[in-house]
Design brief:
- The two termini are 25 Å apart.
- The protein is 40% helix and 17% strand.
- It has a 3-stranded antiparallel beta sheet.
- It contains 2 helices and 3 strands.
- Strand 1 and strand 2 form a beta hairpin.
- It is of the alpha+beta class.
């Protein structure tokens, strides 16, 4: 885990910030990019990809593992078991 000075896991903050940002534009994204994958970092959509694998590879390359998130547009979040952090739906 990576913590900031206040003791909060930085990766969790990234996930929360990105989830809030995505939820704010979810309807617009679903209307324009349904079925594609959005790469988010620091509360902003970086790019839209046809494939979540591409979004993941670019996210790792640009930001490092754990410093970005991917939203499949128009689909509920996918659970990868112990490899993900669960956030309550808003």
């Amino acid at each position: 885990m990576i913590f900031n000075p206040s003791g909060v896991d930085i990766r969790l903050l990234q996930l929360v910030k990105n989830r809030v940002a995505y939820n704010a534009i979810k309807e617009e994204m679903e209307a324009e990019h349904f079925g594609r994958a959005a790469l988010l970092h620091d509360g902003e959509v970086v790019e839209i990809y046809n494939d979540s694998g591409d979004a993941y590879a670019i996210g790792c390359e640009k930001f490092g593992l754990g410093n970005f998130s991917i939203e499949k547009i128009g689909e509920p979040p996918i659970s990868l078991g112990v490899f993900t952090m669960c956030l309550p739906k808003s």
